[in-house]
């Protein structure tokens, strides 16, 4: 009798545990989706914004936002939620332990010193160029993006280099589903023109953008290939059009970027 009661209790606890697990994981997934909803174009979100960008209900988005406020990851003011510096701990978990950013940093620093321009490293993640390391040049006005930021792969120099490393099938799949949003008057929004730029990057080993992402900003990127010849990252330089032309940046930067990208590739 006692054993039967114990078995029933164990079964009930098992049912409770198994029923909680999916809810717990779903809650975690929603919270992470809300965190990822913040980006360079969405530095603050309302509850409605968060719900729309995460494809969830307003009630669920509100619970996630308030939980993140309670944990110190967000601030809340007049209906707007903004990330706090504590959010850097999440990216730090990757940056402090992953080998690629650690191996890349000395190469980026030397490339920056050779060019006197900011140099970055990005990887491809879910159709975005995600910046995982950067050596910043000392200037009054900084250019480019910070570590942890991401840009659409199809209209950024880093992204085009990374997409050029895909197979034709993978590239076709990406282009079929990508959203060609206009960011500046120079942004390419024709799918064939975007494909041509990516294929040109595959052929030449270099990609560039001229005010396609942001007015007044130029960027050039080259691939970082591992020992198997696979493109694992893109090394890029960004500069202001007020200081240099695209032609002059290409002349100065491409050989330097290739040198340090090859050095990094030999370490991978």
Write a compact overview of the structure shown.
The chain is an alpha+beta fold and 268 residues long.
Please render the helix and strand layout as text.
Layout lengths: L1 H36 L9 H8 L3 H13 L3 E4 L2 E4 L4 H8 L3 H17 L3 E7 L2 E8 L14 E3 L4 H8 L3 H10 L13 H14 L2 E4 L6 E9 L5 E10 L5 H21 L2
Antiparallel strand pairs: 1-2, 3-4, 3-8, 4-5, 6-7, 7-8
Helix pairs in contact: 1-2, 1-3, 2-3, 5-9, 6-8
Structural overview:
A hairpin with a 2-residue loop joins strand 1 (74-77) and strand 2. The protein has nine helices and eight strands. With 268 residues, it is α+β, with helices and mostly antiparallel strands. The chain folds into two domains: 2-84, Winged helix-like DNA-binding domain superfamily/Winged helix DNA-binding domain (Arc Repressor Mutant, subunit A, Orthogonal Bundle), CATH 1.10.10.10; 98-266, 2-Layer Sandwich (Beta-Lactamase), CATH 3.30.450.40. It has a six-stranded antiparallel beta sheet with strand order 5-4-3-8-7-6. A two-stranded antiparallel sheet has the order 1-2. Helix 1 (2-37) packs across helix 3. Residues 86-268 form the IclR-ED domain. One of its GO terms (molecular function) is DNA-binding transcription factor activity. This is Helix-turn-helix domain-containing protein. Keywords: DNA-binding, Transcription, Transcription regulation.
CATH class of the largest domain: Alpha Beta
Q: Which percent range fits the helix content?
A: 40-55%
Integer count of domains: 2
Structural class: alpha+beta
The DSSP helix count reads: 9
Mean pLDDT across residues: 85
- Name the CATH architecture of the largest domain: 2-Layer Sandwich
Order of strands in the sheet with most strands: 5-4-3-8-7-6
Largest sheet: 6 strands, antiparallel
Give the termini separation: 63 Å
Portion in strands:
15-25%
């Amino acid at each position: 009798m006692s054993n039967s009661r114990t078995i029933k209790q164990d079964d009930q606890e098992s049912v409770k545990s198994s029923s909680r697990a999916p809810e717990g994981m779903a809650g975690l997934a929603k919270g992470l989706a809300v965190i990822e909803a913040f980006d360079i174009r969405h530095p603050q979100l309302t509850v409605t914004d968060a719900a729309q960008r995460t494809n969830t209900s307003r009630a669920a988005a509100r619970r996630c936002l308030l939980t993140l406020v309670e944990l110190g990851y967000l601030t809340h003011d007049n209906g707007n939620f903004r990330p706090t510096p504590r959010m850097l701990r999440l990216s730090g978990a990757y940056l402090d332990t992953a080998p690629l950013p650690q191996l890349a940093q000395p190469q980026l620093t030397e490339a920056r010193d050779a060019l006197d321009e900011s140099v970055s490293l990005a990887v491809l993640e879910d159709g975005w160029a995600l910046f995982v390391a950067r050596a910043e040049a000392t200037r009054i006005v900084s250019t480019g993006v910070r570590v942890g930021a991401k840009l659409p792969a199809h209209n950024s120099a880093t992204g085009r280099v990374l997409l050029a490393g895909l197979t034709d099938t993978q590239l076709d799949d990406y282009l079929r589903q990508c959203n060609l949003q206009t960011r500046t008057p120079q942004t390419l929004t024709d799918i064939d023109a975007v494909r041509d730029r990516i294929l040109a990057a595959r052929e030449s080993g270099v990609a560039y953008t001229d005010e396609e992402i942001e007015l007044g900003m130029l960027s050039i990127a080259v691939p970082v290939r591992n020992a198997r010849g696979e493109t694992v990252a893109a090394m890029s330089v960004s500069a202001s059009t007020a200081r240099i032309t695209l032609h002059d940046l290409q002349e100065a930067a491409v050989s330097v970027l290739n040198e340090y990208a090859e050095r990094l590739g030999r370490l991978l």
